[in-house]
C-alpha cells in the first residue's frame, strides 16, 4: 500500500527539537570553493593579457632604446661639430665636407668590421624641410640609403649658414639609426 501512512496509537505526538547542523551536502558552494574559482579566473585573465600582445606584435624587430640613444648622440655630435656662432645654425660647407659621405663609420665612431668592411650600425643623416623633403641631397645628406625601414630617429631644428630659401624659417636635421 503506497501513499497512506498509518499512525501508531502508542506513539507520542510530541516531537523532539531538530538539531541545527552545518552540512556541506546542503550548501551549494563554500567560501573555499569561491576563493579557488576566483583565483583560477584571475590567473587565466592575467595570462591572456600578458600573452596576447606577443601574439599580435609583428615579427619585425622593433627599435630598442640603444638605437634611440645612439641616434640622439649622433644628432648632438653633428650639431656641435658643424655649428656656427649662432645657436643651432650649421655651416653648409662644414656639414658637406664631414657628413655628406656614404660611409660615416669613421666620422661618427660606428661599429664596423675592419677586414670585411661590414658596417654593423647603419646611419642616415639628412637636412630636411618640415614637410620631409631633403634640402640638398649632395651637400646635406649622408650615410646609408634609408628606405622607410624600422629605425630609431632623432631630429634637431637647425638653420643653415647662408640662409636658404628652402629653410625658411628653419629645417630639421634628421638622424636615423638601424
From TrEMBL:
InterPro entries: DUF7287. It holds the Pfam family DUF7287. The chain crosses the membrane at residues 34-52. Keywords: Membrane, Transmembrane, Transmembrane helix. This is Pilin/flagellin. It comes from Natrinema salsiterrestre.
